[in-house]
Design goal:
The chain is an alpha+beta fold. The protein has 19 helices and 55 strands. It has a nine-stranded antiparallel β-sheet. Strands 3-2-5-10-7-8 form a six-stranded antiparallel β-sheet. A six-stranded antiparallel β-sheet has the order 33-32-38-45-44-41, with no helix packed on it. It starts with 8 loop residues before the first helix and ends with a strand. The structure holds zinc ion.
């Protein structure tokens, strides 16, 4: 007789949970039947490799027997296992799997090919590998190799995820066996798992939720564990339930497989190469079994690594790319930081990324993919469009601490008004696990309901979890179209974005300006030397390319034989781009990552300097013994500046005759001269008479004044600026009550993300640093350079020394700073209280500048208490302002009339030695009349970062004209390089820098035959563009019109 029981929701749910549990009642539940028979593998041999060796080297290793229970280490070491498997002959025709857990990441190799990754951790665990889907006689005896990497998915933090690495961790081999995998049980298991999750996660008061609970309970009642006939019946019941379909109006989740692999983070670059192989070998193996499975994969650098180190895996990947299932996305070299890289670096990320995908796969990505980066600069939409991408995907703004971003699918309008379709997967995650809870949350959290009915769902474990799993694919397949659950459709990004463009183009909202992340704002400052090297590298490579291009054009008419070092320049750019990865440049990686990063920077410095010198020498003549001093200007405006013409102790130049009245030997023993150089050109070094000399004097009240024909600056005994005035003006730019150049020390203890986060409450711990070691003293008195030196104690273990320098003819005063820094969670800043009244400050970014409020009116304003800026920031009222320039800093905060530049942090995780030691950097103050644009702030910030260079070349230049010049300072020539693919052509990149439309004439003092517009990918644009007028001749000219902040790339044939 049937007995109707009153069902209690919780007990019924938990009954189902225990029936599927991997922990409880496995002797009587369904989970316990997944593997019906087990046999231990006993013939295991081990070889402790000397490093991350190749398979070919590993198989030649010296192997000796080992067994379950043995431990292997230390952290980052590699161990290889040779496993001889003997499977019982009675298992013929059954699906047999190898179960292996060594507690660490591992790669299975068969016949020299990487075939699948294994992860040793509990969550996510991937500890099984299919030996045979249907065992044959020939497969009974087999040998495998397993490569064990002694690290977890997230490295080996001593006391948790982001704490510094434990160098001595050992990992224990806990499981090695072969087993029969019962697919019938597994299919039923996945059915019930989906039903269980639906019953659990559908709203508690929903009818559908109860229907699922009863259906699930009924199936469990019908099942007899161990009796196959009941399995068939159970599956039929589940199928009936799951085939109840949704209506047409249901939200569609576009499921895309993904594995977010950080290119370096809590492990070094070298381990990432293996993480890619482990993840992608697993992915292609799943693709062979699941024909509907699609996988999205970003970062050309990772593809290139796999191509180089795992050619057989790469050829399988190529096969699936061709099928449209392994989908390259993002169009960038790596997933870079979104704030700090220069505009040109962004273009190169796209140029080299897209170039790779085009060459290897014939694909140009249409979507920029940056799910995990710490904020997104306002020029990204235009830079993307310039490089062939009109769609953008991220989800990081879901991490905002204060404000909830109001959209999931929207138009993002950048600095110049370029608009890209943008999507934030509403699950707020890029590593979903195929759970009902996630798909329900995705729809609940989708913010543009009514405007659009679809969103993305990225599934797959990242960082060595090896991407999607069999479990996820099975469950998502069952969720495709089930009443009560959003539709889940395996899709490519292109399918998703195309449908949104078609259905919702006119109904989506627009967000203007940067996508600021209200978190991780310490990353503009952490690992200061990385920021410094990045800035230096960006400028060095730019300047090198400029003169290498000029030398190449010149080599056609001279007999210099100079060849453009394209491969080497590309190699250096790629190193720089690699270090711009979103955990390296922001400063959030472990210590050993920075050892690699600085090695790459040193490579860029050394090789870049050699290439630069060689290019400049060849601009003028073929190489012979250099003997003539010249001044090199790599910027596109004429400059007159003080330069060092002979360094202290430099014998090489001592024979040079110098007119003594035109030079100054400074306090360091360097000989200085005032020189003039043409725009983008090289000229003989001729010391000039200075238009107005610089002076230093001590006032009656002990204050020191430095004065040139642009400005007068007064400093007190501890180096603080008490007055800063423009020549001929009575206005003091700095506050009369609070001196500027005031160093400050803040407590800097975040809530968790040490290297990443500076919290708003740090602002309440402001402590001025005024303890003088050496009081301000005049070192140089002019006529070319005046300077004051002083030093301060920061704490018992840290101190700083600063040289305040004013040079003849210069419109800014420089602060050359040396800091010895040994702090724990302290933040060093320098403060400039001004006399300026305004409600917004202006900050330099990629190819332009943006305004941000200086007040805390709204929660959106106050959340931006620390922001990113590049070479300068400015505070201006009508006709008057102050700019702070810098040569390697990125963190800034301006509140009311007070500007602050962030200098050094001291987090202890994940790198416990981050930023400890000595630092050197320069910032400058530039008071100005008029607007920042009219005052030349933008040009002066370039000048500070790209000083004139004195170099020795074989021959005196015959011309003093520059090679490139522009008719207006409103336009900046940001890059000149040889074309990547077109012979005898160069690329010029310009942008409108003032924020207003303009016409410009670019003069090319080179034999140029024709000029056309092109994209950032160097594809020539159609002829019908009448906004460009080329006039041949020498010089040739190009007339152009540009809209505010527009980026223009030109291709010029010669
Ligand atoms: Zn990441």
């Amino acid at each position: 007789m049937e007995h109707v029981v009153f069902k209690h929701r919780r007990t019924t749910l938990e009954r189902a949970e225990k029936f599927l549990s991997s922990l409880y009642f496995t002797d009587v539940n369904l989970y316990g039947r997944l593997y019906s028979e087990h046999v231990p593998v006993t013939n295991i041999e081990h070889y402790a490799a000397t490093g991350r060796v190749s398979y070919d080297e590993a198989v030649k290793g010296d192997y000796s027997p080992t067994a379950i229970g043995q431990s292997f280490g230390p952290t980052w070491s590699t161990h290889w296992f040779r496993i001889h498997v003997e499977i019982p002959s009675t298992w013929e025709d059954r699906e047999v799997r190898l179960l292996w857990n060594c507690g660490a990441e591992a790669q299975v190799w068969i016949d020299g090919h990487p075939v699948q990754g294994l992860s040793g951790e509990h969550n996510p665990r991937r500890d099984d590998f299919i030996v045979s889907k249907k065992l044959t006689k020939q497969q009974i005896k087999q040998t495998f190799y397993i490569e064990m990497a002694c690290n977890g998915l997230f490295g080996a933090g001593k006391h948790g995820l982001v704490s510094p690495t434990d160098p001595n961790r050992a990992y224990t081999l806990s499981k090695a066996e072969v087993a029969i995998f019962d697919r019938e049980v597994a299919d039923l298991f996945w059915d019930l798992q989906v039903l269980y999750e639906m019953a659990k996660d559908l709203p508690e008061n929903s009818e559908r939720g109860y229907q699922t609970l009863y259906a699930l309970n009924n199936i469990i009642n019908q099942l007899e564990v161990g009796n196959r006939t009941t399995y068939t019946y159970g599956r039929e019941l589940a199928k009936q339930f799951l085939s109840q379909k949704n209506s047409d109006s249901q939200h569609v989740l576009h499921a895309m497989g993904h594995a977010h692999i950080d290119t370096a983070w809590l492990w070094p670059y070298a381990e990432t190469i293996r993480k890619c192989a482990r993840s992608w070998s697993t992915t292609v193996q799943l693709m062979e079994r699941y024909p509907h499975f699609l996988f999205t994969c970003s970062q050309a650098q990772q593809f290139e690594w796999v191509k180089q180190y795992y050619p057989s895996l790469y050829s399988k990947i190529c096969h699936f790319v061709k099928e449209g299932r392994f989908i390259p996305v993002g169009g960038s070299w790596v997933e870079m930081d979104g704030n700090i890289p220069s505009g040109e670096a962004f273009i190169r990320q796209f140029l080299y990324g897209q170039e790779y995908f085009r060459k290897e796969f014939g694909v140009t990505c249409t979507e920029f993919w940056l799910p995990d980066t710490f904020g997104y600069a306002a020029q990204i939409p235009q830079m993307m469009q310039h490089c062939g991408m009109t769609r953008f995907l991220t989800q990081k703004l879901s991490w905002n601490l204060v404000n909830k971003f109001p959209h999931s699918t929207f138009w993002w309008s950048g600095l110049d008004g370029s608009t890209v379709l943008t999507h934030f997967p509403p699950g707020d995650n890029y590593a979903m696990e195929g759970k009902v809870q996630e798909v329900l949350y995705s729809v609940k959290n989708f913010k543009d309901k009514g405007r659009s009915g679809r969103s993305c769902y990225l599934f797959g474990y990242g960082d060595g979890g090896h991407g999607p799993s069999e479990d996820m694919l099975e469950k998502l397949q069952r969720l495709e179209n089930v009443d009560g659950i959003p539709k889940v459709k395996m899709s490519s990004p292109d399918e998703f974005f195309s449908l949104v463009e078609k259905e919702s183009r006119g109904s989506l909202c627009t967000w203007h300006g940067e996508l600021y992340l209200e978190m991780h704002n310490g990353t503009y400052t952490t690992q200061a030397k990385v920021k410094k090297e990045n800035r230096y590298g960006e400028i060095l490579l730019r300047n090198t390319e400029l003169f290498a291009t000029i030398a190449t054009v010149g080599s056609l008419t001279s007999d210099s034989g100079y060849k453009y070092p394209q491969a080497e320049l590309q190699r250096l750019w790629k190193l720089l781009l690699l270090n711009q990865f979103h955990d390296v440049l922001p400063g959030s990686s472990i210590e050993i990552v920075y050892e690699d990063a600085h090695r790459y920077y040193e490579d860029i410095r050394q090789s870049g300097a050699t290439l630069f010198a060689c290019a400049v020498a060849n601009v003028l003549a073929k190489e012979s013994e250099p003997s003539t001093p010249v001044v090199v200007n790599s910027l596109c405006w004429e400059r007159s500046e003080v330069v060092i013409i002979q360094r202290a102790g430099d014998e090489k130049t001592s024979e040079q005759k110098k007119p003594d009245d035109r030079v100054q030997t400074d306090s360091r023993g360097n000989t200085l001269a005032f020189v003039k150089a043409p725009s983008c050109g090289v000229v003989s070094l001729v010391p000039l008479v200075v238009p107005g000399s610089v002076e230093a004097s001590v006032n009656q009240n002990g204050l020191i004044t430095l004065k040139n024909d642009h400005l007068t600056v007064t400093v007190d005994h501890c180096g603080r600026v008490t007055s800063l005035q423009l020549a001929g003006s009575e206005k003091n730019t700095v506050s009369c009550t609070h001196p500027a150049n005031q160093f400050l020390l803040y407590d800097d203890v975040p809530l968790y993300w040490d290297a990443w986060d500076v919290m708003d409450y740090h602002l309440e711990t402001r402590k001025p640093i005024n303890s003088v070691i050496g009081k301000a003293t005049i070192l140089d008195k002019g006529p070319l350079k005046a300077s004051v030196e002083f030093s301060l104690t920061i704490s018992k273990q840290s101190h700083l020394k600063q040289l305040i320098v004013l040079e003849a003819g210069c419109s800014y005063v420089k602060f050359v700073t040396q800091v010895t820094w040994h702090e724990n969670r302290k933040f060093l800043k320098v403060e400039f209280p001004t006399s300026i009244h305004c409600e917004s400050a202006t900050y330099d970014i990629q190819f332009g500048h943006i305004k941000r409020p200086t007040h805390y009116n709204t929660s959106w304003d106050s959340a931006r208490f620390e922001v990113c800026s590049h070479k300068w920031a400015d505070l201006s009222e009508y006709d008057f302002g102050l700019s702070v320039l810098n040569d390697c800093k990125y963190g800034f905060s301006t509140v009311n009339n007070v500007m602050r530049l962030s200098l050094l942090r001291s987090p202890k995780a994940p790198d416990e030695h981050a930023d400890m030691g000595s630092h050197e950097f320069t910032y400058a103050l530039m008071p100005h009349k008029g607007s920042l644009q009219d005052a030349g702030v933008i040009q002066q910030a370039y000048n500070l970062n790209s000083p004139l260079v004195v170099q020795y070349v074989p021959q005196v230049p015959s011309t003093t004209a520059g090679f490139f010049s522009l008719s207006t300072p409103q336009v900046v020539l940001e890059a000149v390089k040889m074309a990547e693919r077109v012979e005898r052509a160069m690329i010029l990149r310009l942008y409108e820098a003032f924020g207003g439309k303009t016409s410009v004439t670019l003069t090319l003092n080179l034999p140029v035959k024709n000029v056309k517009r092109c994209t950032g990918l160097e594809d020539v644009l159609a002829d019908d563009d009448d906004s460009l007028l080329f006039t041949p001749g020498q010089p040739a000219t190009v007339c152009l019109t540009l809209r505010p902040f527009q980026i223009v790339s030109l291709i010029a044939w010669f």
